[in-house]
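Page 37, top half.
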Amino acid sequence: MDRFSEMEAFVRVVEAGGFTEAARRAGVSKSAISKQVSSLEQRLGARLLDRTTRRVSPTEIGLAYYDRATRALAEAEEADAAAMAMQGDPRGELRLTAPQSFGRRILTPIVAEFLETHPQVRINMTLDDRFVELVSEGYDLAIRVGVLEDSVLKARRLGETKMILVASSEYLAKSGAPTRVEDLNDHALLHYSYLASGRSWRLAGSNGAERVVRAGGPLAVNNGEALLVAAEKGLGIAYLPEFIIEDSLSAGRVQALLPESRQPALGVWAVTPPGPFTQPKVRAFIDFAAKRLKASSAGR
């Protein structure tokens, strides 16, 4: 007799409190359930249930077996679901969150193209620079830029972006251009207030060693595009991702500073809740976004 069938029959009897109710819930005969449980006890050489005319209850051994059996059955069910999900077509609503500037400049065109090729998927996208709690806030997927904190969440690297120091020609004419990282201490530094390191900028010094500069300038704001506008207006020096400033650089509204000070590129990550498998709609979008980001990086 099938081991999992016996195990499932036993669990049903314990949860139903008897053979009759267990059989009714399973849609089988009482004798069939009883035969499976008896076969299980015989195979194990242990009595798992105390049977009286009024009730059926698990023995001490039965309680221990029930605990492990329920876990084994749950894992088997998850394995079945994972296998079936991998064969399914992407469909349903995908709840997605991403930083505002990255979402507007990079992600929205990818979303539009994805929806054209996956008509059975709907995307509910929230652009927010704060750290969003995926599980408690009910999101399927977050796109994050930077260094990830250790967590139980699953993550896949989709691409990368560089951080660049920029300022307008008007500001540099007024305050002078820094020639080394240490010079930044004498400048107005425009700060991104959601930076994980607080007001500290970590940059490579002239000898290649990491230097920490405190951004104590006149403006701190929680949006990178707002910082770029402030830099374009001559308010100070900003330290921003390449995808935010590339158009402004090309147009000459800001200039790049201290190229030797740049840190290793920041990762662009797809982050999903923990679990044994990824839903088809989520997996399909992550694969799609990874290809598009790789193609756009190659074209630069």
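Page 37, bottom half:
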Amino acid sequence: MSLSSLQSKTGYSRSSWERYLNGRALPPRQAVEELARVGGVDPTRLLVLHEVAEEAWRREPDTSRRSDPSESRGARRTVVIGVLVAVVLGGLAAGLLVLAPWENGDSGTPSRGVFTYKAGKTYPCEVKQKAGRLYAGYSTTSTALLGGPGWDVVEAQCLLRHLGFDPGVVDGVYGPNTTQAVKHLQDKAGLPPDGLVGPRTWQVLRK
């Protein structure tokens, strides 16, 4: 679609879409919803990606210590374009691939190696507080979007259990029981109960 077509179908101007698609401005949540509608894709996961973009936009690095101040703008721009690419392609994976450079290893499991799912394998949960935040020792992430099996899921399951929301077995698989526990947590915290873990849900889990 042309910019004129986007303007007529979404109600946002040509110049606005040009800024959004070039990564020069953060698109508002409603613009992402409108683009998803026009593209015929489910907006739910895309809105979680939009949360990540908002987080990146708010994190304004100190450019006074950088040799090239454009590095800060470039990082934010990458995240914004990642959300819009995900809309255009209709899938979460594309957005995550573009977002990967910004993550900078935030999903940290330095001593555990690559997660491999093993049927019947469960993990113990020993949640501790460090610097006012809760950790179970499987991941240090506060931004990862949970989907497939992994240490981030084990971490979330332990934190859910610690906070009184039963995720079922702690096996690193983001299944129906974990999704339901996340929804209950989100509902109690005043977040949209979509069952998807993004930055805002991690913030509640880490408290």
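Margin note: Confidence is low (pLDDT under 50) at residues 62-67, 89-107.
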